[in-house]
């Protein structure tokens, strides 16, 4: 007998909107009305039960088997120290854990951190990094507003999450070294249990289709046939692009799927190579 797949997600925070949008694009529908007040909700059209909790609790729930899967920042998975696998990177919630120091600080490189005080909410990851660099420093655990620790005289440096970097700047800090890059990930404790394996496969099939589609664009352009080979060489698509003849026989239309990352640079090169009428369209789902 199969049962519903249980997935823990962040209840309210930086990952919750993107996670809800991912689920909506996967066509998992939840009863309306109870909204953010409900911790547990069952999808109406798919065997899926979602547990909405604080992100810090998710690794424990996955490790204990309370849920089959979880969605958290990879930083939270790493810091938990639990043996949890990343099943899929979800391409949102991008940030990095970085070591930073006050702008006027004498600390210029990571090796200058020897013997210094570092404030962080990520003691495990920070300690692991320092150990890997052969540095002994004093780690001060602070939950929240780590960036003010140096100005309060509590620390010489911080190890904190950075998104845009504006929080560091506003607090007179400069990045010394990135410790690791993070993004939202789908985690599990290894193989999911047998009674939920088939449901898990179809859940992953949908998540992957949406997640891949989100990061690719459908690109259409027209080009004179004599420039076609140059255009083809610039398109890094899945396979070779589709080439369609046009009413004007010396021109063709080219259709291709291209990664969103670096798209502007590709478009500039395509234009320089003779592409005209370039259209970029979103891809809702992409089945590999
Ligand atoms: O309530 P709960 O415990 O569930 O949430 P939380 O407050 O612990 O986490 P939340 O919602 O702040 O973040 C959830 C996840 O989002 C993190 O674990 C990261 O994986 C990811 N994420 C992405 C970030 C950021 N970007 C980010 N910028 N988490 C935190 N920040 C902080 C950063 O440290 C800084 O203080 O946001 C502030 C603004 O950053 P800048 O660099 O853009 O100025
Ligand atoms: Zn948290």
Number of strands: 15
The separation of the N and C termini measures: 29 Å
Main sheet record:
6 strands, mixed
**Helix fraction?**
25-40%
Kindly report the average pLDDT value.
95
**Shape assignment:** flat
Identify the bound ligands. phosphoribosyl ATP, zinc ion
Commentary on this structure:
This protein is α/β, with parallel strands linked by helices. 26% of the residues lie in helices and 32% in strands. The chain has eight helices and 15 strands. The strands form three sheets. Strands 2-3-1-4-11-5 form a six-stranded mixed sheet, sandwiched between helices. A five-stranded mixed sheet has the order 8-7-9-6-10. The chain has a four-stranded antiparallel sheet with strand order 13-14-12-15. The longest helix is centred in the C-terminal third of the chain and has 18 residues, at 197-214. It is flat and about 75 Å long. The mean pLDDT is 95. Bound molecules: phosphoribosyl ATP (PRT) and zinc ion.
């Amino acid at each position: 007998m199969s049962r519903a797949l249980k997935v823990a997600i962040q209840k309210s925070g930086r990952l919750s909107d993107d996670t809800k949008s991912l689920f909506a694009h996967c066509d998992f529908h939840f009863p309306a009305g109870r909204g953010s007040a409900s911790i547990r909700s069952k999808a109406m059209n798919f065997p899926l039960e979602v547990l909405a909790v604080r992100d810090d609790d998710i690794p424990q729930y996955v490790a204990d088997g309370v849920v089959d899967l979880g969605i958290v920042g990879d930083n939270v998975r790493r810091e938990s120290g639990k043996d949890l696998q990343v099943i899929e990177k979800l391409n949102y919630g991008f940030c990095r854990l970085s070591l930073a120091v006050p702008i006027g600080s004498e600390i210029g490189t990571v090796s200058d951190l020897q013997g210094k005080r570092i404030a962080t909410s990520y003691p495990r990851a920070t300690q692991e990094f320092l150990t890997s660099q052969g540095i002994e420093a004093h780690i001060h655990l602070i939950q929240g507003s780590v960036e003010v620790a140096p100005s309060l005289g509590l620390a010489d440096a911080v190890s904190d999450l950075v998104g845009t970097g504006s929080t560091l700047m506003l607090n007179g800090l400069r990045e010394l070294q990135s410790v690791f890059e993070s993004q939202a990930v789908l985690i599990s404790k290894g193989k999911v249990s047998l009674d939920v394996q088939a449901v898990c496969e179809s859940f992953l099939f949908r998540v992957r289709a949406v997640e891949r589609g989100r990061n690719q664009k459908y690109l259409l352009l027209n080009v004179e046939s004599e420039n076609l080979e140059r255009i083809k060489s610039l398109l890094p698509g899945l396979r070779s692009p589709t080439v369609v003849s046009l009413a004007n026989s010396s021109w063709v239309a080219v259709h291709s799927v291209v990664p969103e990352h670096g798209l502007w640079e590709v478009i500039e090169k395509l234009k320089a190579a003779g592409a005209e009428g370039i259209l970029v369209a979103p891809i809702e789902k992409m089945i590999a």
